[in-house]
Amino acid sequence: MNKCIQSLDLLLELKDPQVIYMLLRYCLGSNRLIYRLRTTHPDHIGTAAKLFDEALLRIHTAVLVENGPGFGDFQFELTSLPISNGGLGIHRLKDLKLFTFLASFSSSFDLSKRMFPSISADKSALLQPQLDEFMRRIHPSVTVDRNELLGTPQRLLAQSFFSSQKVILREHPYLSNADANIKSAQSYILDACASTPVSRRPVIVLSPTASASTAPVPLTSQWLSAFPNEGLGQKLSSLEFRAAIYLRLLIPFRNNQFPSRQCTAKGCTASYSNDRFGYHTLSCGGKGNRRTARHDTIMDALFQLLSTTGFHPVRNAPVFCLGLNGASQRPADILIYDHTGAPTCIDGTCCSPLSEAKANSASSSTLGLLCQTACQQKVHKHEEDCRRAGYSFLPFSCDVSGFSTHTASALLDRIASSYAARNDTPFGCALNLIRRKISLAIQRGVARQLIHWFHPRTEAWGDL
Ligand SMILES: [Zn+2]
To answer: How far is the CA of 307 from the centre of ligand 1 (A)?
Structure first.
């Protein structure tokens, strides 16, 4: 255990948050200790587990908030949830020891009894304290049958436990004491980050709108699994990574005492004192708010993917069917050609359901609704004009959390199909790769916008 804790402390010498968190999740965190946890009675691991969890907390606070305030009990709980529950998948031993030994001892007890018939004790009597402790940590609204726990595999016990933790976290004072508008935005982020996409089958028909589903598709968490490699375009700067994590873990960028300042985007009258979390920054409709840069970051990533998968894309293609942009014709964000040579205009948008104006509305309570609406509006506005000009029209809509529409997802399916065929790769692997890259691009675009407003002014970063 001491070796593991020393390894954790050594991580801080790397100075690269994206690499540190990748190592923490896959190599140096609690996964090194799972076997020990499964085979050691929880009563004998309490002190060591506490030291390990303290080391984890040291890393989080040092890497994310430079040992300042901002990373509290709520954030520590959230990081310990699996990624599929909206966390970072960096588990604490105090949680894991609740069910690892229980599952292991329970599943091997019958075999032990057959090998050693002299064992007369009853399994449920031996595990009574562990069962009591597990049940004590389960939220009343989460259905868990105590009588079935002894036959349940560790994976399912973990699912029950972390589902319950998610519910408990939603009742945390950090959320319940927040202003109503902030709470609305934060609920959206938590729900979005806890959504997982359905798996897809390969798209056979290369139609622009081919899709098995019309539901919005979450690309909210795949970026966390992107290997931080500069050559693959998957490296986030320290600031980008931290900004994206701040948004996911609901860490404020500014403290309450920070002097009020007017939003400098032209035409906007909002005050910075209301924007500790960056939700206004991401939603601001004023000029110069860098939403265009956010949009371009995502479109550039999509263009790269289309270029390497045989779609012969043209970026900012001169077309005459998307109306005027000021005095000049508005270009297509990307123009692609399908296997018959027919051109398709791709028009991207990245919207934000986190604004005060949308707080507690359908847009902030229904995941993906806003980008779905934006997508429909674009179709209504441009599809007919494009058709008349001989082009197909394909909107690529997502929101700042990473939710995208089924139309955008269908395009990613097509790219994945082409990637799989060209690289002799299973479709599922190709789709994961494509989704991961777009998920990362959305986070990069959003993070860069946040950094522009909150950094490098030292009073705004690391001085919460
Ligand atoms: Zn503004």
So the answer is: 35
Q: How far is 390 from 246, CA to CA, in rounded Å?
A: 45
Confirm whether pTM is higher than 0.85. Answer: yes
Residue type, 381: K
Q: Tell me which residue of 357, 86, 415, 403 sits closest to 219, measured CA to CA.
A: 403
- Percent of the chain exceeding pLDDT 70 equals 92
C-beta separation of 65 from 242 below 8 A: no
- Position 348 scores a pLDDT of 94
Distance 353 CA to ligand 1 centre (A): 15
Q: What is the DSSP string of 109-132?
A: HHHHHHH-TT----HHHHTHHHHH
Q: How many A from CA of 262 to the centre of ligand 1?
A: 8
What digits encode the pLDDT tens for the residues 261-311?
677 777 787 776 678 888 988 998 888 788 899 999 999 999 999 999 988
In Å, what is the CA distance from 125 to each residue of 96, 122, 136?
Answer: 21, 5, 17
Residue 64 alpha carbon to ligand 1 centre in Å:
26
Q: List helix spans (H) across 12-153.
A: 17-23, 34-39, 46-65, 73-79, 93-96, 100-115, 123-126, 128-136
Please give the distance, rounded to the nearest whole angstrom, from the Cα atom of residue 329 to the centre of ligand 1: 28
Beta-carbon contacts of residue 246 (< 8 Å; ≥ 6 apart): 64, 252, 253, 277, 278, 450
